[in-house]
Design brief:
Elements lengths: L28 H21 L3 H26 L1
């Protein structure tokens, strides 16, 4: 049995990231919500094509929730 580089990951480099700047994360929460809604829409299409009715329904709910969160954030920014 061979190992493919297991072991511990290297520790942090000592540099601190700015707040909210997660690795691989881009943009603000609004951008994340737009991406989530778009991904849910595409995944729902895939679920429909393969007749995964429950997954289609759950993904539709995900899209609605992302849209609602985006609307709520917009309302808070206006006030």
């Amino acid at each position: 049995m061979s190992s493919t580089g297991g072991g511990r990951k290297p520790g942090p480099s000592g540099r601190r990231r700015p707040a909210g700047d997660e690795p691989g994360g881009k943009g603000d929460p609004d951008d994340a919500l737009v991406l989530i809604a778009a991904a849910a829409t595409e995944l729902a299409k895939l679920a429909q094509r393969h007749k995964f009715e429950v997954l289609d329904h759950l993904l539709a709910m995900t899209r609605l929730e992302a849209d609602e969160q985006l609307r709520a954030r917009s309302r808070r920014k206006l006030s």
